[in-house]
Each structure stands twice: as C-alpha cells, then as structure tokens.
Amino acid sequence: MFTVDNIGSAKILDQIALSIDPKQLEQFLTSSYGIFSGDAEQTVVLGFTKARAKWVADENWHPNQQGQWLGNYQLSIPFNDSRKLIMDILKHGAEVEV
User: Fold this and answer.
1) Which of 6, 34, 35, 57 is most exposed, with minimal Cβ within 10 Å?
2) Dihedral of the CA atoms 80, 82, 87, 88 (nearest 10)?
3) What is the DSSP letter of 29?
4) How far apart are CA 32 and CA 95, in angstroms?
5) 36-40, 64-68, 78-82, 93-97, range with the lowest pLDDT
6) Which top-level group of life is the source organism from (predicted)?
7) More confident residue, 7 or 66
8) CA distance from start to end of the chain
9) Measured between alpha carbons, how far is 79 from 38 in angstroms, rounded to an integer?
10) Contacts 24+ apart (CB under 8 A), 42-45
11) Measured at the alpha carbon of residue 42, what is the angle toward residues 2 and 79, in degrees to the nearest 5?
C-alpha cells in the first residue's frame, strides 16, 4: 500500500499483532473513494459533457462506480472524505457538474 523506504528504525514488541481477516481489510480499504479508507457514507453523482465523457466513461475511478448515459455521462461514486474527490473533479473544470 505505502512505501517503507523512509523507515529509520524498527523494534520487536512483546505485543502480538492484530490479525484482521483479509476480506474485511480489503472491504475497509476499498469501499470509499481515493486515499481515505472507511465505509463510504455518501455518493456523488457527476455529470460530464459529451466531449469529456469520451474519456471519463472508460476510466475506473472506483470499483463500485456506476456510469450511465442520460444525454450526458453520469458517474456515481461512493466516498467518505471529499478532499481527494474534489481535486479529481476540479481537473475536469467546466466539463463536469456535481
């Protein structure tokens, strides 16, 4: 998930590490959009212009996204924290409506 090349030191602890079911961990890490983990509490619906939709319709923003053509291309994405999502939306400028 993350790079470990900046670790300066490590030590062995007497505590036993918490064992988490891999499926439960995967669900926690992937249920919400972007780098923020946790259960998705909201869903955003983005409407893209036809010109921008040519590219967006083929992109994978999230494993649980849903896209549909309704005159424009509408993309629904589950999210928990909007910070990363807002940055990605702003990249599309006037070609997207929230």
Assistant:
1) 6
2) 40
3) H
4) 24
5) 36-40
6) Bacteria
7) 66
8) 30
9) 9
10) 42/78, 42/79, 42/80, 43/76, 43/77, 43/78, 43/79, 44/76, 44/77, 44/79, 44/82, 44/85, 44/98, 45/74, 45/75, 45/76, 45/98
11) 20
Helix H or strand E encompassing 88: helix 82-90
Helices (H) and strands (E) counted in the chain, each on its own, are 3, 4
Model pLDDT, residue 74: 96
pLDDT in tens, 20-47: 888 887 777 666 666 666 777 889 999 9
Judge if pTM exceeds 0.90.
Answer: no
In the predicted model, is pLDDT for residue 1 greater than 80? no
Pair type for strands 42-48 and 96-97: antiparallel
Distance CA 31, CA 26 (A): 8
